[in-house]
Structures
1.
Amino acid sequence: MPATTDSNLEIAKRANDEARADFATWLMMAKLNSIDALPQEAQAFFAGYRALLAQNKVAESAAADTTIRIVYRSYYARLGGTGTPPDIKSAPRTRQMPDNNDNVTPFRKIKPSAPPPREKKKLPVALIFIGLIVLAVAWHYLSRGAL
């Protein structure tokens, strides 16, 4: 069976998406100092990422891409892909957020351009109740005279 069948491409896309999402989760957990909560396999992958960073020959983005490719191959095999995993084009990179906290925009209340429409005035409950009593009494007297 060739490695580029439709089912293998779907498996490859799913494995690639899972690998990228899991790696982003691992990075966030590392920032929160909770890597120990990850499964052993994930800890091993992340340790490999840290080893690549420790070599100082590899940039952070290159180490991340290498680790994601390794995780992708593992997930591809685990999901039942056959043969060598096909190369999946990654989505364009988003711009990195600065480390400082100046990226927070203060909330500004937007003023409405026109005043909101007024609600119709509702009849008070007591007035409605009195009207029902008057109708009941009138019905009582009118129905007696007709008989």
2.
Amino acid sequence: MCGRFVGFRNLEQLKPYFPIDEAIGGEAVANYNVAPTQEILAIVRHDGRNILDRYHWGLVPFWAKDKSIGYKMINARVETVASKPSFREAFKKRRCLIVADGFYEWAGKKGSRQPMYITLPDETPFAFAGLWEIWHDREKDGEAYRSCTIITRPAAGGIERLHDRMPVILSAQAYDPWLDPGNQDAALLGRLLEEKALTELTFHPVTREVNSVGHNDPSNLAPVQMEFGF
């Protein structure tokens, strides 16, 4: 799964890596401990343009009674994303790139788990494969609530030492076909998630302060001595 991640680059630093035509929703704010329901940056295609905007992490389907369901929808499994009712329509028509610099996973046994920071070997920013939705709050005159979820896959590239799941990180070659809402071929989309996913990652132990969502600081990423084996 993916339950916490990191995004610290500003818009000018992101532009060389992603197909961004326009950025709305304000300047990117560094977050070294992104948690579910927080606002995150995602790229969505509207009218042929790639728009970077803010979405709440935890997908709320348009048919949901209230947005609390988002807590349970931070991840969508690649094996069922095309068929599960909660994600099926979004997978077909509403896909996005979720911008990140790295993510966390916890290694070891319960009670002695060590947080690990995971990123690309060259430490460049990357994009999780994501889905997005807009839910309208009937109690607030139909106020729009934008949300998204991260697609996960079986762990590979050494990450299986930490956890049996990992987020799908798309290669740059997959960005255009993934964002294209006209591309609704489930088989093709499935191949993108399988064949255009980056799995060569690097990781190191970081401070256990990361366990607290409130600890949001660049020091979260600094390597520390491993406290527990795994």
